Structure formats: C-alpha cells, structure tokens
C-alpha cells in the first residue's frame, strides 16, 4: 500500500543511506522542499512527485482532462479539487520523508535485487528516451535529471522497506488477530440493500445481454423524465411495503436492480470500500441502529438499506470473506496512517519552495 491512494504498487525492498547521500551533485544543490531528521526531500523530488500524483488524480477523477474548470470543482464540503489533491499529495511526500528517515534510524540495508531493479528501471527509461542527454532533457520538465530520478526511486523503496519492517510477515508492529477483529467491529456495518438507479440505465441488446463500450464498460443511457418518475414511484412502493411489514429479502429479490443475494449475510459497508458504495451510504451505515431501515440517495443511485447484526468474524460465510479479503490490509493501513501522521507533524516544510509549485501548473507525468 502506498502512502496515498492515488498511486499503488511500490514493491518491497531493503536499502541504506540517507537521501542527501544518494543525490547527484546537481540535485544536492537544490533547495530542500522539506526536512525530517537528517533526511531532505529536494525541490526536484517534490516537483516530480507532484506531477506523478497530479496525473493519477486527473486520470482518476477527471478522465485525463487537466483544466482550470476541473481544479475549481468542489467536494460536498466545499473544498476544491485543487486544495484536496494538494493536501493529499503533500501528506504523501511527508510520509516518504518519514519513511526514508526511519529507514536510516532502523539501520536497514540495501537489497541487491532491489538495486538491480532500480538500475533496470533507469535503463528502460534511457532506452525509451534514446540517450542520457535526451532523458535528462525530458526529466527537466519535472525538476530532475537521471540521478535525481534514481534518488526518487530509492526513497520510494525505502518507504516500502520500512512499511514491511513494521507491518510485514515478521513485522515489529505486526497486527494480531485481535487487532484485526477490533478494526472489523469498529469500522464495518452489515447491510441488506435494495438498489434502484434513478438517473440512468444499462443498455442491453434484444436478447437481454449488456452492450459494452470501446473500453469494456457496460454502456449506460440517461433515463427519460417519464422513466425517472417511474423510478421514484418504484421507490415509494418499496417504502410503503416495508412500512406495512413486508419481508426485506423478498422485496430485494423483487425490486433491487442489483442482485446481491449471493452475499448471504448482507453487504459489508465501511470507509474502506466507499469507492463501491459511496460516502453517503457509508456514513448512513455508521449512524444506523440494528434493524433500522433508511433511504440513502447518492449520485443517481437510491439505496433502501436495513442494518443487520454484524456477524462474528470467525463465523463468516465464503461470500462474506470475499468482501472482506482485504480486511487485514485495511487494518494495517489505518495503523500505519496514524503512526506516520503523528511523526510527519515534525516534518519541516520550506513554504517558499512549496509555493513555487502549484498543482494546477505542474506538468502531467504519464511515464516517468
């Protein structure tokens, strides 16, 4: 798990040397964007990560369209996309600084395989660019040269090494089964759901099979005004029947536009899978009492939800376990986040350097 959800998949390693010792001469002359202990994150490293994570954000939330209109969009709490992304990226880079410094403090060593992989990654970039001058020229757009890029890769791997050292198979702070069980009970609710799509519908062929677009996604079409009214009537009918004492599971089988019957115990809903259910349902689930039924509307979907008793984690059905297969990772991420957030309070920020690199003006970085 990376420090931030915009970027995933940095693999494990063991490395040495503080950041400032591995930087190339030209990079070491750069101003420090932030400092933690004896570790410095240079301006070039900050600029590089800003471009990488900006790119991930733009392609995740803006279909790759980097525009002022996109950055001016707001979240439900009024925060602009630009402000939100900036805070997320700054936190991520602080976590890298903390990881690199802990790497030094823990006395971790360079792994040969990791060193070879970093060299291989650099060689791949050299071959793609055609020459060292060409690669340096392209990297200059992100504030780095080849040696600076290598330093970035090393810091990322240092962070991963510390994560594994703390929380891996033989981690010094590895979570116990009791820790994971506590996380499960505190962060998840079990819901029965009836799902109604109120703004669009899935496009089907004459035989009832779905139509897919060029990217392999199911094609959708906006509902007509008449269809939207019919959906609201459907929701009202469901609500009336529930008020009259009809069985929730039977109504779900009849009315839900998503067949969730496979999940025999219900749907496990928490902040960790808000990308599936949406933040409104996650928030409602945490508020609801057992047995309570509530309507939740979010982004063209209406959920009619009932809250069930949360099953004992040791007695879960196979379909339950599938939903919670990442539970241990989620629990570890929470512990990691809390620890690094506390440590990163002592990261010293060079406000002048940070202010010189706005997220709106940072170039997109789709390869390096």
Architecture overview:
There is one protein chain. With 368 residues, the protein is of the alpha+beta class. Helices cover 50% and strands 12% of the residues. It has 16 helices and nine strands. The chain has helices at 19-22, 25-28, 43-61, 68-72, 81-106, 112-129, 132-139, 146-167, 177-187, 225-243, 248-255, 274-277, 279-287, 318-323, 327-343, 351-355; strands spanning 32-36, 39-42, 189-197, 200-202, 220-222, 267-269, 293-298, 301-308, 348-349. The strands form three sheets. Strands 6-3-8-7 form a four-stranded antiparallel sheet. A hairpin with a 2-residue loop joins strand 7 and strand 8 (301-308). It is globular.
Strand content: 5-15%
- Shape, please? globular
Q: In terms of structural class, how would the helical and strand content be classed?
A: alpha+beta
Q: What share of the residues lie within helices?
A: 40-55%
Largest sheet: 4 strands, antiparallel
Short description:
It contains 16 helices and 9 strands. By secondary structure, it is of the alpha+beta class.
Key words describing this protein structure:
368 residues; alpha+beta; four-stranded antiparallel beta sheet; three-stranded antiparallel beta sheet; 16 helices; 9 strands; globular; disordered N terminus
Topology:
Blueprint: H1 19-22, H2 25-28, E1 32-36, E2 39-42, H3 43-61, H4 68-72, H5 81-106, H6 112-129, H7 132-139, H8 146-167, H9 177-187, E3 189-197, E4 200-202, E5 220-222, H10 225-243, H11 248-255, E6 267-269, H12 274-277, H13 279-287, E7 293-298, E8 301-308, H14 318-323, H15 327-343, E9 348-349, H16 351-355
Antiparallel strand pairs: 1-2, 1-9, 3-6, 3-8, 4-5, 7-8
